[in-house]
Each structure stands twice: as C-alpha cells, then as structure tokens.
Design brief:
DNA-binding; globular; 7 helices; alpha+beta; homodimer
DNA sequence: CGGCCTGTTGATCTGTTTCAATTTGGGTGG
DNA sequence: CCACCCAAATTGAAACAGATCAACAGGCCG
C-alpha cells in the first residue's frame, strides 16, 4: 500500500502553510485543536490513486502540498478530468455514501484526512466550519459552471488560453509570479480536462509559441503576452 | 416589470406541493413559520428573466412550479445552459455578492423568494437548514461533474440519449410515468445545454425516432426502448 | 389569412480527431 | 559518465463528426 499515515505529536495545524486557504481558516486556536485531534496526514506518490469513483466515501481531505487530478470515466475508458487540485483545496465533498469521482496524484502529494463521521460531528459543534464548507461548495459550483461553458462552447484555442490563464490566476493567488505557470500534468491530462485530444493540445501550445504569446520550457510555461490569451479566452 | 410578488395570508408552506423536495423539508412546523415569514412568491412568464449574470445577488429562490433555464454567455453571444430547474429545485446558491449565471423562465414559473440576508440569519438559527443547503450544493456539484463528462467526452447521440434519460429520471422522481417526458424547452435550448447545434439535436431526435427508440409528439417524447438509449448514454 | 418563429432536412465545409511517424528528454544501468 | 530506453510530446496527412449555410414545412397568434 502506497498510502501511509503519519501521526502528529503536537498541533501542526497552527503553523500549517495552507491554513488560511483551507477550511481550517474558519476555526480559532482551540477549535483547531479539536480538528487536529481527528486529522491524519496522508502522502501519495505521483500517479497513485487516493480513492476511486464508487468507493464508499469514508474520508474527506484537504490538500497541503502537490497536485491532484479528479476525474470521471465512461465504461470504454474515455475520461473527463473535472479539476486539478492544489494546496488549500478541499476534496471529497460528496455527501452521498460513495465518491462520485476518482482522485489521483499528479505530483507527490500530501493531504490532511478527516474521517467523515468525525468531521460531521465537528460540523455540529462549529457552525462556522459548516458555513465555510458551504462557501467552498458554492465556489466549486461556480467553477464547474465556467468549465461547462468552456467544454460546451469554446474552441480548442480558447480552451487552452483559458486553461493557462486559470493557472496564472492560481499562481498569483498563491503569491507566485503570474506570468510563469507550472504544468506538472501531461498533455493527455490537459486534453482530458479540456475535452480535446493530446495532439490538439500540443498543436495549440506550438501555435501560441510561434505567435509569441507564450514561451514553453519543460514543465513550465512563460506567458509573454497575456492580452493575446485573454482575447482568445473571451473575458 | 413582469415580476410580481404575491403576499401570503396564512402559512402556505405547510401545505406546499414541493415541501418534501425543497430545502423546506429540513424544517419542522414552527421553524417553517419562521421561514414563511421571510418568503415572498414570485411569478414570471415564459421567456422572462428572473435575474442576470453579474447582478447583485439579493435573493435566493426555490422553484415551486414551471421550468427555468440557467445559463452563462460569452461576449459574442455563444451560450451554455448549465441546467434546467423544476419544482423543488433551489436557485441562487452563489455565495458571492453577484449571480454567476442568468436564470430565465422556460414555462410560466412560480418561485419562493428568500432575501439573502434574512435567509442567512435563519441559517444561523437552524443548522439543519444549513446542512440541507450543503446537501443541495453537493448534489449539484455531482450533477455538474456528470455534465462535464457529457460535454467533454460524449458524442452527439450519447448526449441526446443521456438528456432524455435524465428527464425520464426526474419525471419518475416526481411520481410521473418515466417513459413519457415533457420537453418544454426549444431545440435551441437543448442544443445549448448539450454543447451542440439545434440542427444536430433535431437530426438526432429524428434518427432515434426512425430507429424506434423514441416517439416524438409535440412538446413530449415517449421513450419506446429505454435500453437503446441506455446503451448509447454509456452507463 | 398571412407572417413569423420553431423545427426539419439537405448539401457543403471545417475544426478536431484519428492514425502514423518522428523527435525529445528524463531516468537507468552498464 | 555516457549510451540506451521508454514514455511523452511533436508534427504531418487523412478521415470524420458536427457545424454552417440554406431551403422549406408546420403550427400558432394576431
């Protein structure tokens, strides 16, 4: 088993890097101790599965490090990636008894795991936490609607441009330079996120590069002319 | 102004048709009175707008009768319908200060309106209501992910088949025959929901009819061979 | 009765996919 | 440390699903 739990001796939540981004921001010091009491840290290696669509949803998670992909599949193997998650993102918000999607690591990933029943008990006690969760869900819903617009109505170039700008926004929100974005995922992952093929994604990157809109190096893209991408992305 | 409010004399919530479907199911009799105190009934005619994307989100709604469409647009007019809402569905769950989408009536529609600030105050008092809202959001999120899979990875025939089966499921959940579904929306609406053109939707309906999978009459479709659609829909 | 909006059907066109051949680059073992 | 290997990415050519353009039919309302 590649998933291993690490026990916590003190309360690392208090000094957590992503505390302000995560649901934990809803709690004060004492409450945070209570949360810490039910949490365990999980680490998974690239390409490994955190959980699968259809599995009983015993845990909820908070990403603290690395990148995950969340996806759904058709029986014949066609795949749709519904999101890439990074530090601060919450995961597992399917209040049925089974996960509605699969979650896999893109890079080495570290997460906080909350047993569902125990987290639900804490929700009763701390309404602020429940409110925060509702906020998270609302934001995800808004993002999902943007993605539907992208999948249903944008051209390949518009999709790729929107994707790059989304990553740039995230980088900025995490206090990193917004003109240089990391691309830890493969072209196939990007294609499955945008409803395209790998080849179309690759061609579009090449086109953007020859047009001077981006400069592509290894697992990183430098956005040279954001305005060119913004025109395409349609906003 | 086409939107008119109707004042309530007693507490019609108690005898509401959709009470068990809506968020109101989370409340008991006394609590329901409190909810009733902040609610107003709104009626809108076909094709009229309930609210627009970007407008300040002062109200939340619950549909009690009719069908709405919820959509987003690109600057050049391309449109993506992210959902059709019917009796019992909740609307306006964008906990930012502005609506993330436009809501318009497909048929004559009646809704309960909750002023946002007042509903939020009630949420503080009745945690069950907040829990219910989180459940609603989770369900919508799961539906949104299904729709992303459809938009990104399904063929035209698969999309139309999935759509018909979705409507059949809804009809069944509302206690109506599952083999005969109402289609109050236009072909263009369906196309904008499925990420297709009107023409492709029309051709696909025709094909299903010549194949004997459906029988199409006016604003209604009879599903003759659900298994044929299920094969296509991929589940 | 006539006009208009919605839907259907046909013909053609095009963006994206599919299939296929190279190229690149990072990791590994000799 | 270098050469090799394999997965990922790139690029080209051909095929195709769905879009676009266009003509026409039907139903509804004024």
């Amino acid at each position: 088993m590649a998933i291993r739990s690490v026990s916590l001796d003190n309360n690392p939540c208090r000094s957590c890097d992503v505390r302000e981004l995560a649901i934990c921001a809803a709690l004060n010091g004492h409450e945070l101790d209570r949360l810490n009491a039910i949490v365990s840290v999980v680490q998974i290696a690239p390409q490994q599965t955190l959980f699968c669509e259809g599995e009983p949803a015993h845990s909820l998670f908070n990403v603290t490090r690395g990148t995950l992909r969340v996806s759904k599949m058709l029986v014949d193997g066609r795949r749709q990636i519904t999101g890439f998650l990074g530090p601060g993102d919450f995961l597992g918000l399917a209040f049925n008894d089974t996960y509605a999607y699969t979650a896999e690591a893109v890079t080495a990933t570290r997460l906080c795991r909350f047993p569902r029943t125990k987290l639900e008990a804490l929700l009763e006690e701390f309404p602020a936490l429940e409110k925060r969760l509702l906020g998270v869900a609302s934001n995800e819903l808004a993002a999902a609607q943007d993605q539907m617009l992208l999948l249903g109505r944008k051209s390949a170039a518009e999709k790729v441009a929107s994707f790059l700008l989304l990553l740039a926004d995230r980088a900025k929100r995490q206090g990193r330079p917004a003109n240089s974005v990391e691309l830890p995922m493969t072209r196939t992952d990007i294609a499955d996120y945008l409803g395209l093929t790998m080849e179309t994604v690759s061609r579009t990157f090449s086109r953007f590069e020859t047009e001077g809109a981006i400069r592509s190096e290894r697992a990183q893209v430098v956005i040279e002319r954001p305005e060119a991408l913004e025109d395409l992305a349609g906003r």
